[in-house]
Every structure is written in structure tokens, then in C-alpha cells.
């Protein structure tokens, strides 16, 4: 059974030039850095990638560039943000799939209209599956334009189709995740928690890893935490708590704040630029991020740089 690997799946940031054009050299360097620091896979064209602020052609270009740069070192997935009827969505999925990504991710709130029933949602996805045979898919409960959380019977149906390999859970509920994991069972689909604050108990319940902010900036620490989540060691929960605080620190001006942090804390050179949230990060806003970078650098990085496979 072909399943995606467990561990951190960064929701990749998109680097921009000063004119807010795509910085492909920066994207290459970021791809390399994430893989070298233990990313299990890469989620390009996600909300953190500012997918709604990328043109359709830019989305394709980003997906193709990351896939080419990864070059088999890690699987790559990318969202299809098409709206409209199932035909339009299937056409866009086929375009994204043609970039060579390992799975194309459906945004739950874009599949049907906000007031559509769950049966209508399933019917639309069934039609999409028939229209794009052979394409592996994923699910992302993206909070924008609104969050559509899927009921457990829909999650069971998705898993049993055999076509879905990735599920980004944004329920922020361990109870909900556990229910979903019970119906996913040993199918191809794997559940990845979006919330670092509940990562350890979710992995103990059967989740495959994290797909969230923390993995974008500290993939090595998240990799270590995923590998050691079953250890009953004080360091495990201590690291989870620290990563939770770190993630909260970048929330206000995200994603520019995460880019600012990467510029301060990694070998990467980033401009703190965002199309989605273009607010400038000045010295006052940047000082807590610089101090966070210094604090996180004190962690035993030799231990954290382990790249184990579960």
C-alpha cells in the first residue's frame, strides 16, 4: 500500500522579490532547507503559501518548481483552489496533477456552495474522482473562505475510496481526530494535525504528523517531536510547549512574520513580504521574533536534526 510518510509536512511559505514577484531562487533554497532539516513531505500552494493571492499560472509554477527541486527526496502536494461545478474543479485538478505532484489537495469549503448538504458534497467529489482517474488526492479543512469540517461518515467514505492519501485536520479537537483515525484505519489516507499544541497526543492516537506553521520554520524540531511522541519523557512535552508558544508569536503578522523569523534564524535570506497581509514588520514588531530566534537556537539542535522515519 502506497502511503505518504509520517512526520512534518510544512505548509510552505512563498518567497517574493522586492516587487512582490515570485522569487524562484528563494523557493529552491527553501525547498532544500526543509528537506535537509527533516520534512517528511512538502505542502506547496497552501494557505501559508498565500494560494489565494497567487494567480492560477503562479500556482502551477510554484507546484512544478517545488516538485522539480525536491527531485524525489520528499513527496510534494499542492492545492487546487478552483470553484464552480465539478467539471471546472476536475479540470483544475488535472492541471495541478500535470505538474508532477504526488497528490492534489481539495479545499473542503470550495467543493460546493456554503449552504450545500453533505450529500451534495460527496456527490460532487464522486464526480471529480470519476473525471480524474489515477490522480491521488488530499483534503484540507482550510479556514478560508470559511472552515468546513467534515463529519466522520464522510471521512470514512473518503478513506475507503482508496484515492485520498492526505488529510489536513484543522478541528483542533483530539476527540474529533481520534474518531476520524478510527474510521481511517489502515487505508492509504493519513491524518496530519494542523495544531502543534496537540501534536503529541494526536500522534499517540494514530496521526501521522504535523502540517502547520511550526513545521515551516522549525522542521527539525518537529521531526524530532514526531519521532519521540510516544516517549514518556519530559523533554517531549517541553518541546511541544515551546513550539506552541513560538507558533503563537508569529500568528499576528503571519506569514510575513514567519519569513522574518527565518531570515533571523536560518541560513536562508528572506524578505518579510506578503501579498496577503502586506503590513510592514518594523524594529518594534521584529524584536520579539529576533529574541525568539535566539531562544530556539539554544535547543540541542544535534538531537533535533535527527531525520528518523516512523
TrEMBL record:
Its EC number is 4.3.3.7. CDD domains: DHDPS-like. The active site is at residues 140, 168. InterPro entries: Aldolase_TIM, DapA-like. SUPFAM superfamilies: Aldolase. One of its GO terms (molecular function) is 4-hydroxy-tetrahydrodipicolinate synthase activity. The keyword Protease does not apply. Pfam families: DHDPS. Keywords: Lyase. It comes from the Bacteria. Belongs to the DapA family. This is 4-hydroxy-tetrahydrodipicolinate synthase. It comes from Microbacterium invictum.
